[in-house]
Amino acid sequence: MRPRSTVFAALTTTITIGLAGCGQQATQAPARDQGLSVTTVVPQADPAARWADAYCGAVTHLVRTLAALPTVDPSTPQQASRTSSDLLSSVVGGLDQSLAGLTSLGAPPVPSADGGREDVIGQFADIREQAESARQRIDAVRGDAAATKEALGEAKATLDRIDALDYLKGLKDVPALEAAEQRAPACRQLDQPPR
Fold first, then answer.
1. How far is CA 78 from CA 13, 84, 90, 99, 138, in A?
2. What's the pTM?
3. What is the torsional sign of CA 39, 194, 90, 73?
4. Rounded distance, CA 19 to CA 160, Å?
5. Exposure b/e, 15-28, CB count within 10 A at least 16 = b
6. What is the DSSP letter of 104?
7. 155 CB contacts (<8 Å, ≥6 apart)?
8. Percent of the chain with pLDDT over 70
9. Can you tell me the distance from the alpha carbon of 94 to that of 13, in angstroms, rounded to the nearest whole number?
10. What one-character-per-residue DSSP string does 111-135 give?
């Protein structure tokens, strides 16, 4: 399952254009699906499915953010810096929401099954720190074309790390939670391809 593949193809293209095209026309990114609506109706008697549903609901915050990222405008180094900073701010915000949801979720109702969630929390926190650092660097070098190009490369590296994440690792590593994922509406919603 890769709910973010289409989004990241567009993002990688946009950042790459920003890296190569400072001083060129603004590029419009393809329209992204912003309508990831999640309806949660899980029976009370199924605690594993309720937990999986909440887990996927927390991950959905990041997926929604990524689907609605602002476009990078490479028309000038200043515009590329400003719009890349906006993009990274959005990524940080989405990661913050997902981290808050995953952290407040607590351990799953399956014995010895929390390693995957903890791993995803650690990866999200690490990438959030990298994204914020890249955003601060972009803001600090605004106006310097060479430094901006290097900072944009850091931004792209951050997005590449997000693309490589397995969002549902916290479920897939435990058979009981992987089965519960199939019964969780929020997880089924993540399985659907972007429109």
1. 19, 10, 18, 31, 10
2. 0.77
3. negative
4. 15
5. bebbbebbeeebee
6. H
7. 15, 84, 87, 88, 131, 134, 135, 138
8. 75
9. 21
10. TT--HHHHHHHHHHHHHHHHHHHHH
b/e 104-116 (16+ beta carbons within 10 angstroms → b): ebeebbbeebbeb
22 sits in which H/E element: none
Residue 40 amino acid letter: T
pLDDT score at 77:
79
What does the pLDDT look like over 10-32, one tens digit per residue?
444 445 545 454 444 443 333 34
Which element (helix H / strand E) includes 173? none
How far CA 1 is from CA of 5, 68, 95, 191, 192, in Å, comes to 9, 20, 19, 6, 9
Tally Cβ neighbours within 10 Å of residue 100: 12
| Sequence letter at residue 181 | E
Other beta carbons within 10 Å of 9: 12
